[in-house]
Amino acid sequence: KFASVNHTATMARILLAALLLLFTLPAVAQTPGDSIAFVTADWHTTDLGRGAECRHAQVEMFGSRQSISVVSYPARHFATQIVQLDGKGETTGRMGEAADATAAINGSYFNMKTFTPITFVMVDCRVLGRTTPGELMRTNGIIAIRDKQGHDVAIFACDTTQYPRIARRYRAALAAGPLLVSGGKIIEYDSGDSFYTHRHPRSLIGKRPNGEVVMAVIDGRAKGQAAGATIAETAYIARLLGLTDALNLDGGGSLDGTGRGGQPPQRQPPLRPCRRTRRAERHRRPSAEITGQS
Fold it and tell me: What are the backbone dihedrals phi and psi of residue 95, each rounded to the nearest 5 degrees, phi first?
């Protein structure tokens, strides 16, 4: 799911792998104080080069402590690609290392026994995965790449009836969800399913009006350090990040992410250097991902 990059080339890589979620925690409504806490948090920033950066902070919001890591990069300087590792499971950290990645993050959902995708995946105009009926309750969006260079990245609402059109118009695509933000507006859901209403570790990808692509990880299940977020809270964070379009990715028990560069001194953030550190490898990754080259 990753492709290697020559160290001597002026390139960087941003990666997504495909994964799944679990467990729960209660939540409270968002308030203006949450916005202030987010903006004024002590963000630790690492310059990743060519306009890309990695940030991490622990923020007191939603009546809890949130551990948030963010990687942003200008799409015009990074060729985003989707890659598939047929039937193999690997940690995001190892995948990022193997690809000489600047950053890596989970992608969409997968079968935990076979490591095959259970949402629509297309690479180089070849369909490698299809959305299963069980994923329709949350898979309502897509990240799609139109050009061979990987600079034209789009994120939008998409259901299974639109996959043939996607296959005709784009070179690569990965379905996930739910869609968090569209056209600058938060998408609201009335589902009572715990996937939506309980706090889980989350990950997302989105775009800013200036053309930047943003990947974010909201860590969870670490008492007093990282509470995780509901889907509504995840969408709220996406808007605080300035995203006009954003898509929820896989999270939960399979959440992981990597980013080359420094890291803050507190609890190891989920988006971290590819080469120097990695989370315990109890979560195995599926065989697909998205990469970016400048």
Answer: -65, -40
